[in-house]
Fold this protein.
Amino acid sequence: MSDDDRETAAPRGGFWRNNSLTLVFGTAFLVVLVAQAVAGHAEFNDQLTVDGLQRISLGEYVTTSDFAVDVSENWQSEFLQFFLYIFGTVYLLQRGSPESKELHKAGTESDREQRLGDHARGDSPRWAGTKDWRQRLYSRSLGIVMGCLFLGSWLAQSIAGVAAYDEQRLRQLQDPIEWGAYLGAPDFWSRTLQNWQSELLAVAAMVILSVYLRQRGSPESKPVGAAHTSTGVEG
């Protein structure tokens, strides 16, 4: 059976097996989000007690700017990571890493390689076979959506952040600041940059460590017996 036949063969197993990666990580996300809310609620109430204020319920806490900014600041850094990685790997290479394309494939590749226009197959997405703006848009849709999710969550972080920051200032009998001023405040950039640096470090570590280390059966790793110099090869 050819590689193309394998790609188009009917999937085996039921819904849960065929979608287990998304379902497991989606469920884990919800569990951890709830755990974050519970832990954050306890910490928030402790601070209210120190400030001599009335404690609030968990339901009230998850609607606060304090909870919103903690969540959104992590989301925006994750979407930034994928946005940069998706676009960066079009042209940037790492010899020996399965996270990189093969060294001779740098760039957007030919229509034949990408199955665009006249090279689209019967099972290709409909817009891949077009030759107008739809093809140009669809061929960059993953990066565009990730970029929009990053900007949206970063905007949400800034709005929730200024509300949380102003609430803290009011408790200290200080005047609140405007949203525009908050965008230049150390609090905003401290929250932002501490997440960015960790995401960029994680990507760099994954790229270089996958050159020399292996994980049998994972598509994020090369085959265990592959040479260190093998590039763009998945296990």
In short: Residues 17-63 form one domain. Residues 20-50 form the longest helix (31 residues). The mean pLDDT is 91. The two ends are 19 Å apart (CA to CA).
